[in-house]
Amino acid sequence: MLIRHALPADADAFAALAERLWRSTYTGLIPAPDLEAHLAEAFGPAPQGAELADDARRTLLLEGGGELLGYALLHAHGPVPGSPAPTFARPVEIERFYLDPTTHGTGAARELMEAALAEAAGAGHDGAWLQVWEQNARARRFYVKAGFTPAGTTTFAVGTRVYHDLLLVHGLELPFD
Ligand SMILES: CC(C)(COP(=O)(O)OP(=O)(O)OC[C@H]1O[C@@H](n2cnc3c(N)ncnc32)[C@H](O)[C@@H]1OP(=O)(O)O)[C@@H](O)C(=O)NCCC(=O)NCCS
Fold first, then answer.
1. Is any ligand 1 atom within 6 A of the Cβ of residue 139?
2. Interacting residues of 31 by C-beta distance below 8 A, sequence separation 6+
3. Helix intervals (H) in the chain
4. Domains of the chain (ranges plus CATH)?
5. Residue 119 binned pLDDT confidence (cut-offs 50, 70, 90)
6. Span 46-99, pLDDT tens digits
7. How far is ligand 1, taken at its centre, from the CA of residue 177, in Å?
8. pTM value?
9. Is 68 helix (H, G, I), strand (E, B) or coil?
10. What's the rounded mean pLDDT across residues 101-127?
11. 35 ligand 1 Cβ < 6 A
12. Ligand 1, from 93, 110, 138: best to mutate by most atoms within 8 Å of Cβ?
């Protein structure tokens, strides 16, 4: 397995990966019309091209056997929203963290998360945060194993519905502070 930074030229492949993994994660759990509406809005060469071109975002890709198998999307855009937890001075959101089902349980997610947190610390962030659907038990367990702690609740809209998410945070040790 290889972990590397996404490049602008990865936009089409990244879009296909992101769409495929979002679909495989939530199919059967979110009503199909809402799922399709969100997929149409959030994924495609244009939105992922914009994500890759955004100076506030960094994307790490997981590759294996010449295929893209997962990604971590980091987004530096301010404090933890609505969190009762101590806020970080320089937070980064792990905006999306998705791996191919063939890699689940293999340790690849841990490697990608370690790389993402190292990337964030190296960029000068002192804390990472993310939101996870309360019903995504596997992801919640993984994030606890990765050292994230609860920091409140929030919501996420998909199509016509609003879902309840948990906010999780992870402090980052800075080399210079
Ligand atoms: C979330 C994700 C990155 C975790 O990676 P992973 O390789 O599956 O994680 P691990 O296998 O290391 O850890 C998952 C843990 O959840 C446990 N688990 C699995 N299914 C579970 C369930 N239904 N309920 C509770 N725990 C569950 C596993 O046993 C394991 O815990 P353990 O190591 O103590 O046994 C990966 O599953 C993934 O990409 N899922 C789809 C995308 C997604 O949900 N992303 C998060 C969006 S916020």
1. yes
2. 159, 161
3. 11-26, 32-42, 45-53, 108-122, 137-145
4. 2-171 (3.40.630.30)
5. very high
6. 999 999 999 999 999 999 999 999 999 999 987 766 666 667 888 999 999 999
7. 33
8. 0.96
9. strand
10. 96
11. no
12. 138
